[in-house]
Amino acid sequence: MSGTGPRESIFPTRMALTNTKTRLKGAQTGHSLLAKKRDALTTRFRAILRKVDEAKRKMGRVMQLASFSMAEVTYATGDISYLVQEQARAASFKVKARQENVSGVVLPAFDVDRSPGTEFSLTGLGRGGQQVTRTREVYAKAVETLVELASLQTAFMILDEVIRATNRRVNAIEHVVIPRLENTIKYIMSELDEMDREEFFRLKKVQGKKKRDTDAAEAQRKLDEAEAGPVEEEVLPPADEPIANSDLLSSKDEDVIF
């Protein structure tokens, strides 16, 4: 038996060999496709990772500016939270979800739909109107950055899990499935070769026995002929030689006249 390592328990036949080779071809094709998918997901994962890093740095700067802007508004106009609550009627920011397909993996993405909504035109009319407007724009930018970061972070987590699962599948096919099928093919081929050698040896033995039986029968026939001695053959006259009348007449029929 050739080949070491784990293999499948299968009866070695030509059909089993063909089926195992087909399965091995499918496993190799699946391994190639999964490897390409893993590479594509890894490329997208690294791009998202760079964007996440940039978004987090941007988020830190934007939130810092928003906090300073809010401090300026509070210093200029005092507490305006009750005015904002009174004038708020409809949301000026809406988040819409969509899906992106990356190598068969569906990634959610979030977009900001900025509608006119509630206008705070009268807020800070007495004083601090410029600071209120600037704070509103800065916080709007902060919300957009936050939505972008949430979208990237969600895609990052999903891709991380999918890449891990794909790596496990690729490694399982490469280090478990394919070697097991290869060992099974080696085992079947070795068994088939052994059966062919056994069949060839059996045919040679059968042919040799038939030859010995034929030789023994021929020797027995020659021995029987030798023991029986030569056989005397009766000599007949030639067919065209006339037979004498005296030979046809017996002693008693000599007086018979034809």
Explained architecture:
The protein has a domain at 35-159: Orthogonal Bundle (Helix Hairpins). With 258 residues, the chain is mainly α. It has helices spanning 14-77, 81-87, 129-228, 245-248; strands spanning 93-102, 105-114. The chain is built from four helices and two strands. The chain is rod-shaped, with a radius of gyration of 53 Å. β1 and β2 (105-114) form a beta hairpin. The model is unreliable at 245-254 (pLDDT under 50). The chain has a two-stranded antiparallel sheet with strand order 1-2. It comes from Auriscalpium vulgare. This is Vacuolar ATP synthase subunit D.
In short:
This protein is mainly alpha-helical and 258 residues long.
Mean pLDDT comes to: 79
Largest sheet: 2 strands, antiparallel
What distance separates the N and C termini?
A: 99 Å
Give the DSSP E fraction (strand runs of 2 or more residues). Answer: 5-15%
Widest β-sheet, arrangement of strands: 1-2
What do we call the CATH topology of the domain at 35-159?
Helix Hairpins
| Level-2 CATH architecture of the domain at 35-159 | Orthogonal Bundle
Q: Give, in order, the helices and strands.
A: HHEEHH
- Overall 3D form: rod-shaped
Low-confidence stretches: 245-254
What share of the residues lie within helices? Answer: 55-70%
By secondary-structure content and strand pairing, the structural class works out as mainly alpha
CATH class of the domain at 35-159: Mainly Alpha
Rg over C-alpha atoms, rounded to the nearest angstrom: 53 Å
Query: What is the overall number of helices?
Result: 4
